[in-house]
Amino acid sequence: MKNSISRRDLITVATGAIITMPNLVNANSNESQDLKPPLPDELVKEFVGAAHGKLDKTKELLAENPTLLNATWDWKNGDFETALGGAGHMGRRDIAEFLIKSGARTDLFVETMLGHIDIVKPILARYPEMINCKGPHGISLIRHAEMGGEMAKETFDFLKTLQKLNSQTQ
């Protein structure tokens, strides 16, 4: 029994290394090129703040810095908020729709404020305990529906009924 490597095995291994090595080098160099510095804290805070009520400022900041779209401001103690989240709990349908059309990631709270009962109902049917979850600043789903006004009335009524049923079963 031989313990040595044949010339054929050595050539096969060397050829594989030669073919693979440039890909490994390129993968590492592409990875380091893709890393960008974090957005400045004050810019994120300004963008999230603007989306609470200033559509023009929100549009201006997003046009200047498109990567702000899904940026999250940390208010501390587990309270994270995006611009869309701010527009949601303030009832700013115009800002929320602008951000969603721009590609922002939406959530149950914003969909509740927008009155999208066709989205809210199946989520709460699947996860009924979410009736009690809190959004940015601890604001409830029902409060988001209230902020949606007349266009979210059906969603508000649905949430009130669901909340009432939950309180009766506990």
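Next protein, fold it too.
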Amino acid sequence: MQEKLEALKDYVKLNQQDFYRLAYSYTKNPDAALDVVQDSIVKAIDKIGSLREPGYLKTWFYRILINESRMYLRRNRRLVPVEHFEEQVQDHDEDLAQSIDMYRAVQNLEVKIRTVIILRFFEDMKLEEIAGVTKTNLSTVKSRLYKGLELLKISIGEE
């Protein structure tokens, strides 16, 4: 068990920014994202015994992180308006404007589809890893990915 705990410690140190980015994509709040990451780490330490195969540490931890992020959303059912995000952006920066459009489009996706899109393109996970994290089969992950991409094409194309 000590070996698993050391592996978790090293993994968290190396990937804390990725964890924060993912938590922030759910919470839209810097402080809340930090809380979600912290809660996820505490839960992972507490449940390290449930990690059967150390090779699946990434999948196991991301599942905890996503579950904690979703739990935060359920506890704090409030939306952060996109206008708050846009206030920090200058209108003349076209790349940034496109990023805002993409951000908006991704945030408007259904939670299950959004999770697959974020894990695939922002966290650079393989489809098999996403299936493990979301506890769904590979074909479901693929269908959600393709559906999400189609929805994003439509959404971005209309704006």
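About the second fold: DSSP finds eight helices and no strands in the chain.
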